[in-house]
Amino acid sequence: MVSEINTSEKTVTSEKEGRVASLARRRHRVTRSLLALPLGWLVLFFIIPVSLVVAYSVGILETFTKEEGVSLETWRIFLTGENVYMLLFIKSFRMALIVAVVVVILAYPIAYFLAMIADKYKYSLLLLMIAPFMTNFFMRVMAWKVLLGRQGVLNSFLIWSGLRDEGNPIEGLAFGEIPVMIVLGYVWIPFVMLPMFAAMISMDRRLLEAAADLGASRWRAFWKVTFPLSLPGVVASFFFVFIPTIGEFVVPKLVGGTKGYMFGSAIDDLFGMGLDWRTGSVLSLWLVMAVFILALLFMRLVRFGRLAES
Amino acid sequence: MIDIATSRWAKWVLIGIFVFEILFLYAPVTLLYIFSFNEGSVVAFPFVGFSLNWYETAFTNRGLLLSIRTSATIALMSSTASIVVGLLMAIPLARRKFKAKTPIMALVLSPLVVPHLVFGVALLITFRSVDVLTNGFLEFPLSLPAVAIGHVVVLMPLIVLILIPRLQRIDAHLEEAAQDLGASGWRTFRTIILPLIAPALAAAYVISFIISFNEYAVAVFVSGPVTTFPIFVLAELQVPVRVPQIIAISVVVVTLSLLVVVGAEIMRRVFERRYQVLSQTAGLLGVADADTE
Description:
A: 310 residues; mainly alpha; 2 domains; 73% helix; B: 293 residues; globular
């Protein structure tokens, strides 16, 4: 704005500059006051709560009297594997890793299909894919429970149709580690597609033309252009599944049985049944730390930071 | 586009995968629809006979209806509040320049990397310790507002991610022109910004409402004596004889949410065409949308 003004008329310029400056100052004030409420909310109901978990885990804060004062003892017991929780964590970490990787692999072709091939139908097909899943999580879990249970639809169908003898249903589908992973995978597929789809759709298509002009084959163009450019989306998708899965405690409750018991289930029990909040706090923080460390590792591998800033 | 997308066989393979996964996703849900009309009280083959009994049982179950009302109230409170704070946050982040932008963005998005379970636990400790630290002088009741407060934190980053790309797409000249013509900041917002982001706001509201309505992990820790819909459903699912009526009510809830989601999407398209807002992405996919920017 300032540059358009004839510099020979100095008074006008300075007046205008003054107005611009005051406008800028006012904007800053407005910005600050706009941010006050949401930031305050986050500090009060997110930062402080998480800090209190830290305080609780070392005994600075206690809400029950029976506990044993300020120390890192609970941390030590957990980290040295004196109780079962570290083993449980490793198991849950492995499960979450498998689920996230498998689901990303299953969802990648779908995202690719919608972004690159489906053309004008892509948003309708995308809606078809995700619409039923904006609904109750339990409903989807229940669908599988009903389907896979010992007396569930699958088994009762097999027996009813004579494909399997009565009293000899397919075992191991109703409860355990595998059903937990199947159900979690089922629940996440529609959503994990989204970040990958977004990455592919925003890709500069001219790069592919350039690759072709330079004589790249289709496969080469895919591996050298499309795939690397979709990687930030792949990483985002991975965390989309990994974070809720490693903190999962509902699905194990419904289809886990004793074998499907996860790290999240332990946290839930420690707090829910009021057994031991201090150990529960340690486990909760460990979970967040694990996610953070993994995210940092990935960020180094792929330029994930750009995505986060978006 | 000259990668494998243009080759014929790849196209058919991908279509095949797409159809297969759609079937995989829809089959279990379809079964629920079918079995909601089954007369028998065991959800299994053979199909006993057609009946609307389970719907009747569900709709006369007071506990169930109450839990739906509770969840609807929480969802209304938390999605309204989070739309307001989300918008307050998104406007400066999308349209102003200031130094602390990156750390603030990181702070806003940080609830996304904390599992809901952990956040629920953290809120529980917080509300409990208000009680303990003031020696019982200040007691924070674990109930409906506590859940809504938690949900606002969960929803805020999602809403910010939906709104920011929309806000960024608005031509800065429009705003400057309005202010040069003497419009106040508030008036500029009301007459320029708000109408242009209305579809995104509506989409964000619908998504927030649905997420809050179905949220379990935070709610279960801070709801106290209050029973929300997901808490009720989970408890009932442990009792086999109650499962059929839960299936019936789930079918109703799913159908309703589907209608709302598809309806909102159609409305958004009509609206955006009318206002000719350049938009490449579906409003319902706001989260994905944000990543494209």
